[in-house]
DNA sequence: ATTAGGG
DNA sequence: CCCTAAT
């Protein structure tokens, strides 16, 4: 840092000539995208694997007890690889109904062994009611049907015995019909989890949760472009069940990084086309734009009419359909209330999400550069699958469902023991925010209990990742600021029983996933992937201790994704804003970022935010050029006010000075407009010419 | 898609 | 940060 400043004042090196001269958009664009070549892997493999395994096992087993399933599913870890998960899943087809995902996705799945396809069938049998009981009823019915269906094929039953403990926690608060529904689903989910868990001992933790979702009218579903999720039979095993902890890492980048590191451990692994972050981002933006803009503009359900043709249930809520997208979280609580009060429940949805946490022995080396040494490493590969069955009916007796959204982010977090629980929370939260695109509040659970004192250090709290008792709970985060009721709910945590460290309990199922527009969070699941950490801003210098402890962390991610689709006939006013646009999570600029910004602006000027972005924030997808511009704006303002009036993380005065200098320089120097190509970067002449070569980041 | 500003 | 208008 210090030397950085010097660098700046060094003059020679201080303001380098614009690295990115203004160039034709086309060209620049290319350059900007290049970084995203990596792409991401569709994470559905995981789900597929689970499902497949489940199916397989189930088919052979008529038993409905968890015990049986367990036994049957038990697979010797050594055979994991030999036992490709190319289970006969043909009957299962998951259709990823997310437009964004499929439509413009660069994601080109390879031939898949498995495809889960949703068969949009009329929801003829879904009961609709105007009251809670009705809702509940609907849910139950759905579940039953589903089970029935499943039973035919898979024999997935509610394994209370197996999940008893977890069920308990869940059952604690079935105040809402929705909850009840969830519980049931959760159990099912557990089964799957169990199955997966049995697949390999390498699974440190598996967490399954159900995402509550509403079934959308089939029409809507159809409108979605369907994405085929390729299932790489061999991928899953290798990816998910690292046999040697040191050699294989399961990771997903949850942040906006584009690069994936591969561990060449699994040769069988098929090369997978990774979807680039950029792609994701694009899609997401598209989606958001669509919904943020379209919704408000459309009047009189114009949108619904065009989009949801033939959908009659939407009368009161059509608009909402388009809102869910980004409000996943915030609506959560509200939604539930709605469920309660909402007169109509048009859809019953069943969503499942699975989270698999993998505990890598060691952190990926690649992360080192970005991550200061840390004592705790929490790596979690979480996959949440949201699938809703538009219909549980299956003529052929096959289970059909669609995946609404799927996220299999790997949260790779390294925290010093001295870091606080709060920081841990933030770290996780940010990751999730990036992934889910929503504002999520993360609760840290230890031994199933929510850790309250966020100021305690991990050490003090007793959070040792070796204990399989660390969990995270997603809570709805209300922009409005009121505490979310959901927090009151019994936290769903990871099983703390050490007996089965591999399997974790169901996560809080209270998840609502938007159906249509959920931004498919393309998250790749790849064991070869080495996650990078970008929590630098979160954990500045604190990360100093390097403890190569073998930490296991189970991260249970239970995204709460509100479903706007639900009957929300009520006044839109109230939840209008919140539902339409969930504010992005606030990410205060760190000093480091500020410095990067300052430097970039010094060189590029104040009118080339895109270039600034590329230059200094290319890897920070959550920082858009608009953000940078805004930040600059605030920086200029900040620099002009008295230090006492400044808030937040104090920005070093020297940086502010630079801000002012650059600001005045560029505002005065019209050259950018004149020569529009490359204006002379601001030359700082203050200090002696001292060039310090320092490479940051 | 970017840029520029207002809110 | 969000939202818009204008490019």
How many domains? 2
The total strand number stands at: 13
The overall average pLDDT, rounded, is: 42
Question: Number of helical segments?
Answer: 23
Q: Give the distance, in angstroms, between the N- and C-terminal Cα atoms.
A: 11 Å
Give the overall shape, derived from the CA principal axes.
Answer: globular
Domain Ubiquitin-like: 399-463
Domain HTH myb-type: 581-640
Protein name: Homeodomain-like protein
GO molecular function: telomeric DNA binding
State the gist of this model.
By secondary structure, the chain is α/β, with parallel strands linked by helices. It has helices spanning 2-9, 25-34, 44-60, 66-73, 99-103, 132-153, 160-171, 177-199, 218-223, 235-240, 277-297, 302-307, 318-321, 324-341, 365-368, 421-436, 458-461, 572-580, 591-604, 609-616, 625-640, 653-668, 671-674, and strands at 93-96, 205-213, 227-228, 351-357, 376-381, 384-388, 400-407, 410-415, 440-446, 449-450, 470-476, 506-507, 512-513. This is Homeodomain-like protein.
